[in-house]
Predict the structure.
Amino acid sequence: MTVLRRIGSALFAPAIAVVFAAVITTLVILAIGENPSTAVRVLFDFGDTPAQQTQAIVVILNRAVPLFLAGLAVSVAFRMGLFNIGVEGQYRMATVLAAGAGAAVSLPAPLHVVFVIVVAMLVGAFWAAIVAVLKVTRGVSEVISSIMLNFIALGTASWLLTGPLRGSEEGAAIITTKDLPESGQFPGLNGLFDLVGLAQPRGELYGFLVVALVAGIAISVLLKRTRFGFDLRATGLSASAATASGIDARGMVLKTMLISGAVAGLIGLPDLMGNTHHFGTEFTAGLGFLGIAVALLGRNSPLGIAFAALLFAFLDRAAVPLQFADIPASVVTIIQGTIVLAVVIANEIARQLTRRRAEGETGQAASPAPESPPTGPAGTAGSRIDEHQGAGA
Amino acid sequence: MSAATTTGPTRTRGPLAELFLGGGAARRALWILVGLMLLLSVVRVISGEQALTSASTFSTALLLAVPIGLAALGGLFSERAGVVNIGLEGMLILGTWGAGWAGYQWGWAGAIVGGILFGVAGGLVHAIATVTFGVDHVVSGVAINILAAGIVRFLSELVYVGNELGGGATQSPALSSRPPSFSLPVLSDGPDLLGDLADQGWFLISDVAGLLRGVTSGVGVLTLIAVLLIPISYVVLWRTAFGLRLRSCGENPAAADSLGVPVYRMKYIAVLISGGLAGLGGVALVFVANIFKEGQTGGRGFIGLAALIFGNWRPGGLAAGAGLFGFADGLQLRSRTAVVALLLLLALLLLAVAVFQTVRGRYLQAVLAAAFAGLSLVGFLTIDELPTGIVSFTPHLTTLLVLSLASQRLRMPKADGLVYRRGEN
Amino acid sequence: MAEQPAGAPADTGTGNVPYAVELRGITKRFPGVVANRDIELRVRRGEVHAIVGENGAGKSTLMKTLYGMHRPDEGTILLDGRETTLRSPADAIAAGIGMVHQHFMLADYFTVLENIVLGSEPTRGGRLDRATARRRIREISERYALNLDPDVLVEDLGVGDRQRVEIAKVLYRGATTLILDEPTAVLVPQEVDELFGNLAELKREGLTVIFISHKLDEVRKVADSITVIRRGTTVGTADPRTTTSRQLAEMMVGSELPSPQTRTSTVRETPVLQLRGLTVASPGGRLVVQDVGLTVHEGEVVGIAGVEGNGQAELVDAIMGLRPLSGGTVLLGDQDITAWSTRARREAGVGFVPADRHRQGMLLEAPLWENRILGHQTRPPAVKGPFIDRAGARADTARIMREYDVRAPGPDTLAVALSGGNQQKLIVGREMSSSPRLLIAAHPTRGVDVGAQAAIWELLKDARAEGMGILLISADLDELIGLSDTLQVMLRGRLVATLDPGSLTPEQLGGHMTGAHDAAGDAA
Amino acid sequence: ASDEDDNGSSASGGSDGELKIGVAYDTGGRGDKSFNDSAIAGVEAAVDELGGEIEELSPNDDGSNREELLTQLADAGYNPVIAVGFAYGDIIGDIAAEYPDTEFAIVDTSVEELGADNLTGLVFAEEEGSFLAGVAAASKSVTGHIGFVGGSQSPLIEKFEAGYVAGAQAVKPDIIVDVTYLSPAGDPSGFGDPEGGKVAAQGMYQAGADIVFHAAGGSGEGVFEAAVEAGQRAIGVDSDQYLTASPDQQAVIMTSMLKRVDNAVETFVTDFAEGDLEGGTDILNDLSTEGVGLSDSGGYIDDINDVLEDFRQQIIDGDIEVPTSP
Ligand SMILES: Nc1ncnc2c1ncn2[C@@H]1O[C@H](COP(=O)(O)OP(=O)(O)OP(=O)(O)O)[C@@H](O)[C@H]1O
Ligand SMILES: Nc1ncnc2c1ncn2[C@@H]1O[C@H](COP(=O)(O)OP(=O)(O)OP(=O)(O)O)[C@@H](O)[C@H]1O
Ligand SMILES: [Mg+2]
Ligand SMILES: [Mg+2]
């Protein structure tokens, strides 16, 4: 009974959200004089041939992997009340330097891959550490410093690309680093399709999916099961109580940002190691900002973030077929924004309804166990971006 | 001189410190300004970079500071009422679209109204989400940023594509009239006395004249409004009953509620004002180019947020933050060589820090500062021109450096970012 | 007054004067809790009416109902005999009711003036008229001897001053009925006396005062009548002149009034804590703790008395490693722990009951079992190696809840859902469970009802008998005198007197705390 | 593809079958008032002539789905598929190889080295047109001081700068040319930042420049505004910007450096339809093919027509070698 009810209330919020987003989107599509049902059909129509269908899955998964990593990076910091807007800059610096370093060395295949990953994580962690150090030693708000460092990363990466790390010849329209040698590329996972008897898609499923899964599980265990994770979450819930319990708040800021930055360093790698093999002026930008939305949508829990990333990727995939159906791709952006809003609003409504129902029950029974609403600490931890200005000083 | 007059509740100062630091924020700001001008003059004379203090640099700084400052002011209202506004960028975007749309039909005055209304609409979404539904402020803000980008593109496709007056998926037709601009008669216009003075190249005097002329000649109507809004915001927030109530919602909403302050309504009003001001920032951007152009905000909403925090959630402070950013940004766009001269400025500043820390007996910090001062000096002496990539982030690096060098006593409104639900605290 | 409310029985007060406040059959439910059930309360005009009851009995909830902060699920509110609906505090204020909350409702970064006038500001030409406000506050301040400076930041005020700001807030609005929720919990006797003086003043002016307290002696001293609440419902009223504290306590909880008397000395030779020349500077550079030297032996309770804001909090922080020292050493046993981190200190056997449980003691948004881990992250049963032992932590939380009578549904309840007393019991239980050598206990029974208070005192005594050294900071002078083996008085950052609790009255101690005895030189 | 070995889809692309043209835009999409619009204008002109249908797709904001645009167009049977913008340069080689039956074209990227014979590069000699712009600016400048505002500092925009400076110096060797880029390579914000464009151009005018040439996309709007305020002149880019400008701006837009993406695309489509397409090569659009040039709307440069004509001829004849990088 309670289990059923719990599942019911867990699904309740997403259900409201989907309805809400659907209503808004329908209105938008009606406004341009198109048929909303077309949009629905397009969203779920993965293509005619089996190869096209698996390709659609590949497109979704390949997009979801960097989004997931971005969300994960943001969420780690959120969990201790730090707002890391700087993921964008962290992954940019990490990718350009990892691309440069990876192309410059020659190593046997597995080592080379590990080398590139390690360089990216180190660089991401370093770039995030600047934020942490400024906060801890100088009390600079992480919001400002990470915004500024995003721009600084943009300029620096551009300089690296056009200067020391330039690999493309003079005059080429796109400036890139040198290509990663074969040994530094991450093999795809297309074998999987044969294994489960699906048609081979056109493109390649990023092998980095595995790394992302490992990172997600590692972060999940770290946060939920370890002492360190406890310290991190405790600091997020109450910095003062955490300090009084013996947690070194400054140290936590540094460590958390290092982890967040290291994860951020991975964001560009699926593309770098699985597709483009170089960093260039046209390298995908903006994933760090999307990561914030994904993290918030996933309520800062790795599993939630995985779902959020898949949802975003699923919607992104539809951008092309929607245009075939004469619906502008901006509708996708609108759906994404609406869903983020709708989900969080729905969560609140669900919370209040649960509460009211509990109140109703209390009327008869004297002291039933107050069922805690679905917003656990995970849901609210992200809200605290305050109170940490003074944490360092 | 006896230091008998106690100034602060916590600290007593020596007479010298009293001269510089006493007398409230206004005097302190004045001293800082004087010090900065002096420093700039020195650097200008040594480096020969006239652009550092030319009237045009300052007028550019003002121009670039306006949208940032307006966004930051928007942030001020909402955060003083306890609602964190990461959605400033989105409201700025909505403002640009509203200004472009109204402006091509009804001219510049229409653009102002349109921009404000669109910004307010963004604020309304944020208020509904955060105040009524108690959604996390950051979530809502991020969602608004995403939404705004999508909506604006969508609306452009709807309204401008195929519009015979021009425009397209990413831009509006040109405004049907241009906003007026003003100059101070005699001083910066006609005889242009300040301009003449500024051209003399005299130490400090010409620099100050440059500053004054820069901020008094050819000032756009919106710049004027924005500059006036700074003291107005101060008066409204700190000198009226309305402001007190609004701020109380950001400090301790439960207390405010217990005294009959309509917390939810105040928050709504604050967030709507916030959206309107950010929208006005969008109008400022549109006025520069005379059209709406997608992507024209270029993250200025975030910079505005940074300016707000930089300015310690105060109108004067955020204006200083926006001004600093505008100055560095203008310099960066104008003269790559002048950016190199900033290295000299940095060296001098760090040297001062080193001396200061030595006096205070913090030798490690002193040595560090001195080392970096040396590095900057070497940089200044050896570098002629920096690559575009490096120059492009001059304003951001400057902001970051100023923040890390200045001692931080930032104090955000105490309940900022906390969802308030009646009866739950 | 004019009309009798429909169905009102004839027993309306003495001489047919309607009650100033009458609550009939009030019921208020929260998710999972019935905070008030069918409560009756009758308060005459011009009297001081006390409400007593154990933690979580529902006193604050009832008062919040009366102040319009929430609507009762059932029942009616009558003011001066007239049935009234209070939709918001604004309604209550308009009806002449003012409330001083258990937790101060003050904006720290606002000045006293701003806090007081908020919501009913005098304005001139649209602008806040500070001059008028200042004048009126000075008037109130003088008339009721509140001694307030309108222009200082509340942040810089001690608790006593804050309390007076709260009272001034209410008076400024012309309230005729004042609700004070545990006003004396944080005050020293002199301040309590001043407060009671203020209350007497108010009474003379014809104001009605409703006040909540756990200190039954106080209640009997100041109240004209008493209502006792148990588990959310009224159990009766009492006449303070004819009822003893013991009887009151029995009405409340059915247990005996506890006494904090220490029986025999258990002080041993070995010191557990030695402070030498401890000096702490505030971030502004002011010395807030100066040259403090102190020794706590095994089995000894050293009490620190002092008016709040005289450096006790900083002293505690310094001992716990939460604040940098500007001079001096801290020895735990014979180890110099001056440079140790807070965690290392805790691991070495220092237990800590912080003064502000919400700020330093708990994660309000986390379940109880996670709160059990807090501060004990490196020790069993909470952890296994680098991992958290959830089962162990849950089981141990259940044990604490059992042994320390923490009333909550279970270890998965969020801490925020517990009443203050129950939160405190959980904290004490947690700190005791690692059997520390030294316990720093700051206000261990603040806001805790008599039953729980007795339990906590018993625990401290037992621990002391087993050889634990305890540094006790408290504002409750009976507690200090009753529990301590040695008493130190702290004034302006210094230890100014060492007193023998065996031969000391609270009044004498209060004198030392305010510096009145400074010159007398009875320091040992 | 005239002598395409297999005749499957090239036949359908031939003269008799219905033309199905796929266009994949650069970010911004249709209605950008820039080369996306220019490209589609070319396609539409061809379709007006030949009949057929057009499918246009825009990439998402971060451009991460470019590959999908091309492959889905090809999958849906569109042929030819035109990729607008060099951003497709990284991927189009592979895709062309994957869809040997579809004819691809890419604007602004050389495909010679990719070796796919179903891929055509539509490239432009921007430096030659810019050279003429430089000549015009130098000839009309009174102060001997001109300016150049570039969007993002990419190799493509540097071609504009190089030609412009060379042209100006060819007229007046000691001319001062201020050069500013609004954003570094890899940061496309410089193409959508009118405020930056205005500030940069203002600086040049205040420093004494009297003509500023922009190759900054949407930021150019700011350059024109600066010219209007300063009462000086500006040179537009890509299309004849005089035609779409407001009256105030028309007064200051001296000329525009034309880059006829529309012509190039139209020719490509027509060639394809008529089976004249060679494939695997670049089609260079330069002064000689009138793929680049100067506009004369407003008549501001009519007086220096001889000078311009002279230089044009020298370039076409190869007497002047225009540099492609600064
Ligand atoms: N807003 C609320 N939501 C849920 N439960 C609440 C709320 N307010 C009070 N309660 C519960 O109602 C009960 C009564 O609480 P109340 O604060 O009135 O007790 P109290 O008598 O004031 O206790 P104390 O002496 O500790 O102050 C407690 O169990 C408390 O947890
Ligand atoms: N959201 C909530 N859910 C459950 N209980 C709540 C909630 N908010 C407050 N309470 C409970 O309501 C009561 C009212 O708070 P009050 O201000 O009286 O604090 P208190 O904890 O009783 O005080 P103290 O800590 O001084 O003893 C408290 O017992 C608190 O635990
Ligand atoms: Mg209470
Ligand atoms: Mg209590």
Q: What stands out?
A: The pocket of adenosine-5'-triphosphate (ligand 2) is lined by residues B 424; C 60, 102-103, 416-421, 447 (CB under 6 Å). The radius of gyration of chain D is 20 Å. Confidence is low (pLDDT under 50) at residues 1-16 of chain D.
